[in-house]
Amino acid sequence: PDVIIEAQFDDNDAEHGQDHLQDLLTDDVKKLSLDAGEKAKAVGIGGVHRTKQDDGPKVNDPRLLPDKFLQRTAKVVYILEKKHSRAATGFIKLLADRNSDLFRRCAMFSPVDHRVPRVYVSLADCPPDFVTRPEDYSNMLFICRIVDWKEDSNFATGQLAKSLGQAGEIEPETEGILTEYGVDFSDFSPEALECLPQSLPWVISPGELAKRRDLR
């Protein structure tokens, strides 16, 4: 039962009749079979040792297979660093089950980026008239920040940060992209602006040009 047999035969095999084919299959089964003693010899204390059958068909026991025939698998055991900003752009809508307790407490946030999970957000974070007029916000972009995502839940939990505006407009879409990737697009501080030349128009002095390589 632990042996997988794949048999091929052509017209020449068929000419010898079914008995000849059965004999060939029987011989193949004998070659593949390993009794308990042979298995014990094949598996040593230090690891897997080659047997005489290594060059032929293999039995369905991964311990007896060479590494090149095995697919390595792994699982995530710990997150060292969270690279994603946990911010996403998307839309909010009411939950489908109006009779549930969750419907009276949360709304569903659907990110534009489908790699980000859908998020439960509190109705307190939503606009005041969202429950009574959800259609008014069907095309409104929002920024949501993911707070938690439990292992046994298909949906994360998060908080609405702000409303960006209508989807499809340049400014809301641009602000959403910059926020998702954690780009600081706030105004420069006065200290930073003081480092720039104050007298305009500004030109490079001849002495500075003499020290530089002109790549214009």
* Topology as a string of helices (H) and strands (E): HHHEEEEEEEHHH
Query: Helical content, roughly?
Result: 10-25%
Structural class: alpha+beta
The mean pLDDT is 80
The count of helical stretches stands at 6
**How far apart lie the N and C ends?**
77 Å
Count of β-strands: 7
Determine the oligomeric state from the structure.
single chain
The radius of gyration over CA amounts to 34 Å
- Beta-strand proportion: 15-25%
pLDDT under 50 segments (min length 5)? none
Shape: flat
CATH topology of the domain at 87-181: OB fold (Dihydrolipoamide Acetyltransferase, E2P)
- CATH C-level class of the domain at 87-181: Mainly Beta
CATH architecture assignment name of the domain at 87-181: Beta Barrel
Q: What is the makeup of the main sheet? A: 5 strands, mixed, barrel
Sheet with most strands: strand arrangement: 3-4-5-7-6
